[in-house]
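sorry for the late reply, my laptop died twice this morning and i had to redo everyting from scratch. anyway the thing you sent over, i finally got around to it. pasting the sequence first so we're on the same page, its 339 residues, then the predicted structure underneath. double check i copied it right bc i was rushing
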Amino acid sequence: MIRFGIAGIPLTSKGRTFIESVEDANMLGLNALEVQLLRVNVEERTAIEYSGLTPRDNEQSIIVNVLRQDSDGNYQSVGIDTVIEEDDIVQELFWNMARNYDELETGGKLARELDVQLSLHAPYYMDLLDDGEVGDKSRNHLHWSMIIGKAMMAKRVITHTGFYKKTKKESLAKAVDVFGDLAKELPADRKYPVIGAETSGKPDIFGTVQETIALAKKVKDIEPILNFAHVHSLGGGSLIEVKDFSEVISEFRKYAKGDLYTEFAGVDYEDNTELKLTAIKHGDLKFETLTEALLDYDGDLTLISMSPLLEHDAQYMDLIYLRTLSRKFQRKPQVKKAA
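ok and here's the structure:
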């Protein structure tokens, strides 16, 4: 099965919430939705007013962590599966798309009823390779994204990795450590989403095809995310022929967690650097060529529109794929003439 979906709130959606996005994606005939964790604010405060409650009881915010003093007086995380004590400190996440855990769970259940497969994209500015404050903040945001993804029953949480530090070899080693630690802390067998590391479209950001695959090889719980526009840009226009698409799909498929998760848009690029994403009819990255490569693909695959036209291009991709598939079945088999 090939699922078609969008990254973000449908442009035609009148509402701006998570639940409304699920409903609207379904109404548009789409069966995948990549929710984006944007415009979030996290505050740390004393927990007196929440004493005796669990984080899920709170209706005003999404409590993503509870900190409690240990025997030495240092505050340590005790997670969210606990009853809050008055001397605790809570970390509250405020998000315009969902106010609390009830709304996350309601949206997740609705998505399953409507057969809309959910994924969640962590905040876009992430530098998990940084050794300072930016790195700590990025790792916290990915941790919180995993908690929210679990609550909404998302299949995967997708993230960018960050800027290279010193050498590319050292950057890969750092990425293995960061993703490995998070995968152990929030494992799939406890119903946390799969962590997806996305390919990069810029030469100063970690995420070539080779690096993303190497990361998946070294951390078995990590899934490489194939963004065709990023790969095309970083390769200076590397996806032109059917075989180009087929080869990269074959590489990523080896490490897919069920369906192969991909993202597509048109793209403007220069000197192996992505400049901006565009409508899929624009530029030399052709969706029609990708559909030819998909004709012989015999597994499950998800295609997410990253285009500025979002649902319009998602629906258009679905149409183009069906046209290509129809032509395949209309082709008359060649009959060899008898000698």
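The first helix runs from residue 18 to 27.
thats about all i looked at so far, will dig more tmrw
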